Amino acid sequence: AVVTCVPLLCFARVTHGMPDPGQRDLLMLEEAFMQTGGRVALTETEQKLDAHLHQLKEKEMSAALFPPAMHFFKAKPLIQRSPIFRLLQKMPKAALHIHSSALVSVEWLVKNVTYRPHCYICFTWDNSVRFLFSDRQPFPRWDCFYWQLLETLRAKLGDPTGFDNLIQRLTLFTEDPDGEYPNQDVVWQKFEKAFIAAAGLITHAPVLRDYLYRGLVELMLDNVMYLELRSGLSRTYELDGTIHEKVWSLKTFQEVTKRFMSDHPDFLGARIIISVNALSVSEVKAAIKEAIQLQKDFPDVVAGFDMVGREDSGRTLWYFREALSLPADLSVTLPYFFHAGETDEGTDVDQNILDALLFNTTRIGHGYALAHHPLAKAISRKRDVAVELCPISNQVLKLVSDLRNHPAAVLMSEGHPMVISSDDPSLFGTTGLSYDFYEAFTGIGGLKANLGTLKELAVNSIYSSLPAHLKDTGYAMWQNKWNVFVLDHL
Ligand SMILES: *[C@@H]1O[C@H](CO)[C@@H](O)[C@H](O)[C@H]1NC(C)=O
Ligand SMILES: *[C@@H]1O[C@H](CO)[C@@H](O)[C@H](O)[C@H]1NC(C)=O
Ligand SMILES: [Zn+2]
């Protein structure tokens, strides 16, 4: 038999069958030391805020309704009333896992973009919608037989806001998430439809420019200081049908970011992770070659490369190995930021985490399955490859219902490298990162997650993302904002 012995336990003094309370305290301290933020030394002021936060947490965790235990669509109004949530909104942080087509709130798309002139709408056979800006009546297409000018339609209806319920077609929100989305297939179908519906609005060139700016505004309102945006860099179109190639989108992103930074000097910047939703090895090869070139031409904007789409129905990373080894074969660096392990199925795609690490991924998108892979876990920890935890996405897309049972609870209690993000905010009805921070901090972290946890998560997001030449200034700016945040909340 193997004799294992935790040193502290071996020496525990036992009197009359009662474990030594002093020894117990030591063990608890030692364990608290291991969690995310456990080794962060808090200043005196930070300790005061931490004590206050602990009280707020105890109160919310003992209330009859605890938001992380509920579906987010029902929990959202409760979270909005939470003083912890309002505090998290003020905390300086960075967003490292957001997709460009779901960056901006749908309210803005409907209230601003669909009210612009020349906006045509079409209702499809499968109960979805398409939009198109055009200076003449658009031709029928395979998915859209009859285009109507939205302005005329609204005027006919008499009620000028009558079409604002379009919002429902562009998000996953519903009053009855459990009834409407009985399984992962149904919710993913709606998810993909919503992306297609929004595409006609966002890929209109003048809209894309405003959309990106508005996206940064919404993040800034949540005190997000830096963004890494996953984007497929769509082609865009003008009113007269002119098409701009992908590089136009990248230039526009660069321009908008510059303008935003000069309007908001305390914003650190934004970069793109080029993300393809590809089916064949040759498509991925082409995409990687293109990404290598774009990174060479726009080194400040292109952070790296990722593959997106539903893992459970797609190919494994290993299937694309020939394409993914191209940069190494060509002796160029193209950092990878793979989505991996966004699954609960235990099938082949489960191995994506290990393969992502073999391809030297910089971070792991989701890594929901990481807790089942001790070796991959050890490697990612050793290399400081952070998991991008997106709790609300995992819940809405039905990997977990009660967020207290999220496997990242294990990762947090072990201090695994981690950042928090929001994946597809517009589709889930969130903005910024604070809703996800709330769920991670109260639901996944539990009572023991403290201000040190928040500080480490926020520092991770700033420190693990910025390019080398921005790290020190970026960190210093974050630290200043953090100090103000702590003082403001005492
Ligand atoms: C839409 O947004 C643009 C750019 O932010 C702004 O200039 C315009 O006034 C907005 N229009 C409406 C109708 O809200
Ligand atoms: C990953 O990194 C290691 C060590 O730097 C290197 O030897 C290897 O070629 C890299 N693999 C790929 C696929 O880039
Ligand atoms: Zn994602």
Automatic annotation (TrEMBL):
It catalyses: adenosine + H2O + H(+) = inosine + NH4(+). The keyword Secreted applies. Residues 187-465 form the Adenosine deaminase domain. CDD domains: ADGF. One of its GO terms (molecular function) is adenosine deaminase activity. Belongs to the metallo-dependent hydrolases superfamily. Adenosine and AMP deaminases family. ADGF subfamily. This is adenosine deaminase. It comes from Mola mola.
